[in-house]
Design a protein that fits this description.
9 helices, alpha/beta, about 40% helix, eight-stranded mixed beta sheet, 2-enoyl-CoA Hydratase, Chain A, domain 1
Length: about 270
């Protein structure tokens, strides 16, 4: 069969922390790239691709951006089947995106879940006293400097922020309940805990243990009912910049899920 007559599968990637900002160092902006590709398929190319393989390696990140990507995937899955392959991790907001797909594979040693919302607000009040630094705020309303790091938070402010976090968490859980209706023990497991792949499988938060190749084979044979030779893969893997190559060579190997403080994130 000619390569030009083969049916097409689109391979997409989500790598690293989910943020709403472009890369500061000229590296690959995985989030922006994925969003643009999903928008392109949604708007113009639904008929061009028979299926999508989404590879995720991400600890999560910004709440609204995660939700936006998840809803783009959700809007595709009725017409273009989406199979997600979890690499090292798809946690928090990244799990929300995975849950929006039709089917989820994970490696045995993958970490996922972490269905929760976190808000981190630093406080520099004691440090500013030691340094003799003062900070004057002029505001139009009592909540306008909510989260001011140079003063203690009032009980009213803390209660208000806790309400925001709880509402965001409720939205997250409802989304998973919608996209994974067969999930077991969701309320218990949706407390922010990271899950190993086997536990996620036992509770129907993922569908199968397997590699990226297993996920691709499942998409072709069991969803599209075809043969590998009948399909061509459009791989959108970004080419790393020269600076990223240098940084990758120098970077230590770490396992990390705690991220820099954001106002609100999944």
């Amino acid at each position: 069969m000619s390569i030009f007559s083969r049916k097409k599968i689109l391979k997409l990637y989500l790598n690293g922390e989910i943020t709403s900002n472009s890369s500061k160092f000229g590296g690959d902006d995985s989030v922006r790239k994925l969003k643009n590709e999903l928008l392109e398929v949604n708007r113009k190319n639904k008929d061009n691709y028979k299926g999508i393989l989404l590879k995720i390696n991400s600890p999560g990140g910004a709440a609204a951006t995660s939700e936006e990507l998840a809803k783009l995937v959700l809007s595709l899955r009725e017409t273009v089947p989406v199979v997600t392959s979890i690499g090292d991790s798809a946690c928090s907001g990244a799990y929300m995106i995975a849950a929006a797909s039709n089917y989820i594979f994970a490696n045995t040693l993958s970490w996922t879940g972490s269905i929760g919302v976190i808000m981190g607000l630093p406080n520099y009040q004691e440090l500013s006293k030691k340094l003799g630094v003062s900070f004057k705020t002029i505001k139009s309303g009592k909540m306008k400097d909510l989260g001011n790091p140079f003063r203690e938070m009032t009980p009213e402010e803390e209660n208000y922020l806790e309400t925001l976090v709880k509402k965001a968490h409720e939205e997250f859980v409802n989304f998973v309940r919608l996209t994974r209706p067969n999930a077991i023990n969701l309320e218990e497991l949706a407390d922010g805990r990271v899950l190993d792949a086997r536990t996620a499988l036992e509770n129907n938060l993922i569908d199968r243990l397997g590699t990226e190749d297993d996920a691709l084979n499942f998409l072709i044979t069991e969803i599209l009912h075809g043969d590998e030779k009948d399909f061509s893969i459009t791989d959108t893997a970004p080419k790393p910049s020269f600076l990223k190559k240098i940084l990758d060579m120098a970077a230590p190997i770490t396992i990390k899920f705690e991220l820099p403080n954001n106002f609100q994130r999944f």
